[in-house]
Amino acid sequence: MTGFALRGLLSRKLRTALTAIGVVLGVALVSGTYVLTDSISSAFDSIFSDNYKNTDAAITGKTAFDVPDGTAPAPPFDESLLAKVSALPEVGVAGGAVSGEAQLIGKDGKSIAFGGAPNLGFSVDPEHQEFNSLALVNGDWPGPNQVVIDTQTASKKGFVTGDTIGVQARGEVQQMRISGLVEFGSVSSIGGATLAGFQLPTAQKLFDKPGKLDQILLKAKSGTSPQQLIDAVQKVLPEGTQVRSAEDQAAKDAAGTSDFLNFFRTFLLVFGGIALFVGSFVIANSLSITIAQRTREFATLRTLGASRRQVLGTVVLEALLTGVVAAVAGLFLGLGIATGLFKIFDAAGLTLPNNGLVFRGRTIVVALAVGILVTLLASLRPAMRATRVPPIAAVREGASLPPGRFHRYRALGAVVLTLAGVALVVVGLFVNGLGTGNLLTLLAVGVLLIFIGIALFAAQLVRPLAAASDPVARGSVLVLTILAWPLFSLPYWLLRRGYWGPGSGLKRAGGFVLGAVLNPVLLVVVTAMAIRRRVSSWEPEWPAEFPGVLIDGPAAGIGGQNSRRDPHRTASTAAALMIGLALVTLVATLGAGIIKPFEDAVDRIFSGDYAVAAQNNFSPLPPTVAAAVAKVPGVQAASSVRGGQGQVFGDTIQVTAVDEQAPSVLRFDWKSGSQETLGTLGADGAIVNEDYAKKHNLALGSTFSMTTVVGKSLPLTVKGIFKPPAGGSPFGDVTISTTTFDAATPQPLNLYTFLKMDGGVTAANTAVVEKALANFPNAKAQTREQFKDAQASGIKSLLNVLYVLLALSVLVSLFGIVNTLVLTVFERTRELGMLRAIGLTRRQVKRMIRHESVITALIGAVIGIILGLGLASLLAARLDEVSFAVPTGQLIVFAIVSVVVGIFAAIWPARRAARLNPLEALQYE
């Protein structure tokens, strides 16, 4: 039977390839994800290890509690510690450094940024080259008020050694001479990050850390072990500092990056899983059709003595071989996907660190295992059906597979699965106290069961939906034809007529003139004919070679009947597209439900005229920016919202701070307190949000203690409780006064600055604010509407990324429709031959296949859109930050896309069917 299975696969190479395409694409995304993230991880590991080359230990500041990476940097410490540790007998070499964000300014006066990559600034010490991770490529190391920049930035922005470049850190932009160009360590690319290196005193001044250090790197004296060095240093460390080995410090620095890469990997793998899930429907449907077509073949095997187990083994073996080939193909296609993703990110300005593609053994094992397992699982039901072929079917014409024992319970089972899935989703969303892992598991399993249940039940909906979709399919194809004809069909028609192509210039010119005249005329004619006659019976009398009109009444009617002939097959084919469109609809609906509440929240909170934010819309800004705009003539009030971390009741929370001018530009929905509370918090006043107050039983006048990142304990009294709007707010669980916040927070930063001006928003006011920000190129002033659009742009960008990733599942479903139609052409070969023999033209055959394809796509679109809206409504009911808003325009686009998918999916099968020779088709077995 093994040889029989191999010969069967080789005799059906086209069908096998089409069946495997879903697995190939899904495995390719899984493989590409691992290659991409492993390559980035390897590059980051090299970066962090290069940071501590020739280093045995590192001294850094220490926060009083663990904080999320990047949200609260460790406080700097006094530089006198450098001399103290240098004097230790165990220390061979010691070097101090400071670092921070240093925004380089281009020749156009704008800040230099490549995507969301960081702008790194740090001190360099040429005297201790053993600690230096930079390689000087050109020029010299920096002197006073000089800077070295990376070669990538210099090349892209046209800077050379000796040029002057602007640098903005904690204060106004400063002009510095470029003393040299540098490259970082051993990695071929550090991504889109910009590098700026300074002499230590210059860096301390820029980063507002006079007499302070962020780090001391240590090399042990000969004969001293790293642990002995650490033990000796530990004895002289002041409070607020810590010492780690070089390996531990590199791991600590990389922790945030590792967490992000793990999330990024999981995020991409989810979409690879979705593509494989959709691909499993394609495989199951393709195998079911193939097995149905091989009924007589399996019956002959049973007649010759093959057992049911042998038939089962044959089908499973064919699926196994298909899965192996598809998984291997997808595995290596993943290398191309990873390379393409690097280039796409690079083109978008988000250059990722890269030190060459990393192809690990884990990638091979996971990709192959997933691809093969999905294929085998998808083949089980079709394989079981193959075993039910009775031997007598070998001698009967048109024999079909008998239904299984549980076939009559299919609809009931589908309903039970769907309800079970909905129940799991509801439990996951509305039951409190579930851990993150349990919550995600319940949601994933619930949604999976919903998809499977709906896909099984969809067969009951095919006939009514197909009937309802028939006129829609005719009308939509007609509209697309009218729109596409001038662009695509007219040149082809002119070419056939000889007006376009090789020939005299006059003849070609005449063709273009004729085309320009015919375009509007034919559009009017076609539209008038469509209105005058019913679409279902309209058959225009164009010349035989004219390809422009795609509608045909009789052919379309046969196509509609074909879609209803086998509801289970149509439903299974539509299910693949249904899943993709359900998820796309879910994303679009949630996006609309997030953006609208956010915009409403801004309108409710922000009562000023202008907002000052970073150019990238999300980076915090130093207080010097707010101080500059506060001096602008005409400013009635300028208030900033600071952000940081604190520890209250044993938990790390977001802490914000406001100043006494906040009541003039900010509005709160007060449960306790008033607008005046914002400006009168004083040294110990605090405002908490309603949920936080309920969680910890806080009321007006309640007292509690908050620990700051530097370990200072702040006694606080609740002076106000507010209810944040549904769209969220920039305020943390606890809000205190700016004075109290600054006294306990090193290097405070503003999240936003809000302005209220005489006369409101005017061209003159905008100009004067922008002039004040000229010395801070990394900041920008925005009106309320501009601020809302800029903040929402991040959400929209994320939605676009999700659409692109979900497009892969739609692509897989397109191949599923192609596969079904091609297999249907094989199955209906004799039928097509008969239709051709009684007068059906090639064009009508194409239209018949196309119409069936569009109806199938519309069925998948209708079910998918409704299902997506249902899932979105459940999430919106659970999440206060999300409202249920139907994105009508986007849903119309999705429906149009589904029609286009149906048309494109039918191109090849339709051409294949039209090319059948009627006489040969009538003799097909």
TrEMBL record:
Keywords: Cell membrane, Membrane, Transmembrane, Transmembrane helix. Pfam families: FtsX (PF02687), MacB_PCD (PF12704). It comes from the Bacteria. It is a multi-pass membrane protein. It is found in: Cell membrane. Residues 270-391, 804-918 form the ABC3 transporter permease C-terminal domain. Residues 16-235, 570-765 form the MacB-like periplasmic core domain. The keyword Cell membrane applies. The chain crosses the membrane at residues 267-291, 311-337, 357-378, 411-431, 437-459, 471-494, 509-531, 574-595, 801-826, 853-877, 889-908. Belongs to the ABC-4 integral membrane protein family. This is ABC transporter permease. It comes from Kribbella ginsengisoli.
